[in-house]
Amino acid sequence: MLHIVVCIKQVPDSREIRIDPVTNTLIRQGVPSIVNFYDLHGLEEALRIKDNIGARVTVVTMGPPPAIKALKECIALGADEAILVTDRKFAGADTLATSYVLAKTIEKVEEKWGKVDLVFCGKQTLDGDTGQVGPGIACRLDLEQLTYVGKVAKVDSEARKITVHRYLEDGTEVVETSMPALITALKELNEVRRASLPGMIRAARYEPITWTIADFENVDMSKIGLKGSPTVVGKTWVPEVRKIEGEIIKGDTPEQIAEQLTQKLAENNLAEKLGWV
């Protein structure tokens, strides 16, 4: 049976994000947190593989204790186990330090539950928006790397092969590679299921496994947290809000509205400026 690890992150709901006008930073207080939706598509694909050919699905996240809520949501959807990696020493991690800790976590998962065949990540997170953590994990664990995947065409557990469609700017690339492999998921990959009632009941009773720095052996302290994060944000700013004026054209019939629109375009020479003539 395949063993699949899904990496998720709890992020601020982008629909509720506000910017502090003084500091130009995100206001996180009072903003609800959700599971990064690209990660949910990765989880959904792992669960589909589980449904079709059988697999054990383990979900992991690095974050503060409240991230347990996100892990419980994944359990409700059908994941088998969930692991929270949390410690103040991990705080302030950029993508380089985050990929290091998650790679160490996957190695520890292998020690506990057996070799990992597939790792799913979202193509990026809603808050960081870099798309670097998944590839960073693949490089650290020497996994075959399949990014921007919009379709998993075939998983052959006996031959240990997987075939996917990568959605690129200039077309679609069909790739077959051997497992173990890491996949970064696009939203086009699937439609995320709703949690079932038994799943929600299990999630309510389930307590995710929590690992701290004390649970990891031979961790290089220079590669975690702020010490292991060379990324420096030199400046942030909010784009100026542009005011665009508009006019509503009214009329009793479509013909009257069309005639008024034609006159407006002619008066301002807009048709030519827009390349319509």
Give a structural overview.
- The protein is 30% helix and 26% strand.
- The chain is an alpha/beta fold and 277 residues long.
- A 9-stranded mixed beta sheet has the order 11-10-9-12-8-1-6-7-13, sandwiched between helices. A two-stranded antiparallel ribbon has the order 2-5. Strands 3-4 form a two-stranded antiparallel ribbon.
- α2 (68-77) packs antiparallel against α5 (197-205) and α3 packs across α4 (133-141).
- The model has no long low-confidence stretch (mean pLDDT 90).
Short description:
By secondary structure, the chain is α/β, with parallel strands linked by helices. The chain has helices at 37-53, 68-77, 95-113, 133-141, 197-205, 254-267, 270-273, and strands at 2-7, 10-12, 18-19, 26-27, 33-35, 55-62, 81-85, 118-122, 144-156, 161-168, 171-178, 181-185, 209-211. The relative contact order is 0.16.
User: What is the number of independent domains?
Assistant: 2
CATH class designation of the largest domain: Alpha Beta
How would a crystallographer describe the biggest sheet? 9 strands, mixed
Helix-strand pattern: EEEEEHEHEHEHEEEEHEHH
Structural classification:
alpha/beta
Distance between the termini: 63 Å
List the total number of helices. Answer: 7
**In one word, what is the shape?**
globular
The average pLDDT value, as a whole number, equals 90
Query: Largest sheet, order of strands side by side?
Result: 11-10-9-12-8-1-6-7-13
CATH superfamily of the largest domain: HUPs
CATH fold title of the largest domain? Rossmann fold
Low-confidence stretches: none
Number of strands: 13
Strand content: 25-35%
**What is the rounded Rg?**
24 Å
